[in-house]
Design brief:
444 residues; alpha/beta; seven-stranded mixed beta sheet; two-stranded antiparallel sheet; 15 helices; 13% strand; DNA_methylase_N4/N6; restriction system; MeTrfase_CN4_CS
């Protein structure tokens, strides 16, 4: 099967390639009897790749959009006849409404005909812009069309067929409909403003999903693929072992007996990447970001990695005395000196030292949870980037995480290998390294 099948149903700007997963699976000798976990599963690259390889996997994430994406991508048992029937009905319902929205303010020859078009009552819909929509990210008519689509998708039965319609709906928002560009942060793109063909984008996305499901179902039926079992859960990575033991049927099945064999993942690292902003439109259309409280619930379940998810009550750094690590203390001390010398008492800069302490403390808590559920001899691979986002103070993320994992948690002989160099998001800072950190739990 083509490498991009299914992965392209919904993409995220920070996702890594499935080739990374296949390469590590080959290197580690991961087989069909093993269980792989991705605690920062995102849109599902690790779990989908594992499924294709015939390996059981569990993915967890805090974002409702990411959880929906990963569940859809790894559920290959959808009834395609039901999908087609429901799709036809939905497209028939929304098309005349979309046409009416596009025609508003336009004078055409049809306007003067006696027959006219299909009567459409737009008063059925609430076209007010959702509160948390960033300014200018949706033009008026695309906003109205997406509102109509959401209204009718929500009327459908709550099942795995409708999940695919929800995924297609949120996928076209940033890709095709919104006035958004990623560089890598999401910003307004004025060049895309105006009306757009939402119907065509949505219809094409559903056609792609249908074609991929047809191919993968045929491949399974013919024996070309023997897929692994997959489970997708919503969870804070700092509570991984607790959530898996309480909620995971796959972990607790006889085949795996409560133990994870491998972890392959890419957590956030200290940089100003606000994941809830980059997925803002998707979260809004899933009713997961109606107000600040909704956004805070998602942010507070994440590892602290940027100034916009630092909160007054955060105290993980103090809980684990993270500054007892010399590297962390040196970084924080350098930042505190800058704060004092530059007399910085307002703005996001005053939170930079806390991002460092809370991030590494949160990752220590995560490592403790992984260690707890990982089988003896099991390996955990983390793709992490170094950082120079904060006043160009160098943060060697992989090196510090390796020290914490070995000295505080108990992993043995951490290995760090360069994966790639990335362009720094700060103009005054050179390219930064993105590394793969491999941790091993000692054999008992």
């Amino acid at each position: 099967m083509d490498d991009v099948d299914i992965h392209d149903w919904y993409r995220f700007v920070y996702a890594y390639s499935d080739r990374l997963v296949t390469g590590l699976a080959d290197e580690f000798g991961i087989g069909e009897d093993d269980l792989v976990v991705d605690p920062f599963n995102g849109t599902g690259t690790t779990t989908l790749t594992a499924k294709k390889l015939g390996i059981d996997s569990i993915g967890t994430d805090t974002s409702p959009a990411s959880v929906l994406s990963a569940r859809c991508k790894t559920n290959w048992d959808v009834d395609l006849d039901a999908f087609r029937e429901r799709r036809s009905e939905l497209l028939r319902t929304i098309r005349p409404v979309f046409d009416e929205i596009s025609s508003q303010g336009n004078t055409t020859l049809d306007s003067f005909g006696e027959s006219g078009g299909t009567d459409v009552d737009l008063s059925t819909y609430d076209f007010s812009e959702p509160e948390k929509t960033p300014k200018g990210w949706l033009s008026e008519k695309p906003l109205q069309k997406m509102t109509v689509l959401k209204y009718h998708v929500e009327e459908l039965p709550d099942d795995d067929v409708t999940d695919l319609f929800e995924l297609a709906m949120i996928a076209v928002l940033p890709e095709d409909v919104g006035n958004v560009r990623f560089g890598p942060e999401a910003t307004r793109d004025r060049t895309q403003e105006g009306d757009t063909d939402v119907f065509r984008f949505f219809k094409n996305k559903l056609a792609d999903i249908e074609a991929d499901l047809e191919r993968v179902q045929a491949a399974v039926e013919s024996g070309e693929i023997e897929p692994g079992d997959t489970e997708i859960l919503r969870a804070d990575a700092r509570q991984l072992a607790d959530v898996l033991r309480d909620e995971s049927e796959l972990l607790n099945a006889d085949a795996h007996d409560g133990e994870v064999d491998y972890v392959i993942t890419s957590p956030p690292y200290p940089a100003e990447h606000d994941y809830t902003r980059n997925q803002r439109l998707e979260l809004i259309w899933l009713d997961a970001a109606d107000d600040n409280e909704d956004l805070q619930r998602i942010k507070k379940a994440n590892i602290r990695s940027h100034t916009k998810n630092i909160y007054v009550a955060d105290d993980e750094g103090e809980q684990v005395d993270i500054r007892a690590n010399d590297r962390v203390d040196a970084i924080v001390s350098e930042m505190e000196t800058i704060l004092e010398e530059e007399d910085i008492s307002h703005g996001f800069g005053k939170y930079y030292p806390r991002v460092i302490t809370e991030y590494f403390a949160g990752m220590q808590h995560h490592f403790e949870q992984v260690y707890d559920v990982l089988a003896p001899g099991g390996k955990a691979a983390y793709v992490v980037g170094d950082s120079g986002s904060y006043w160009q103070v160098e943060v060697e993320t992989a090196e510090i995480l390796a020290e914490l994992a070995e000295n505080r948690v108990g992993f043995e002989a951490p290995e760090i290998r360069l994966w790639r160099n990335m362009a720094a998001t700060t103009a005054d800072y050179d390219d930064v390294e993105e590394n793969i950190l491999v941790l091993t739990k000692p054999d008992e």
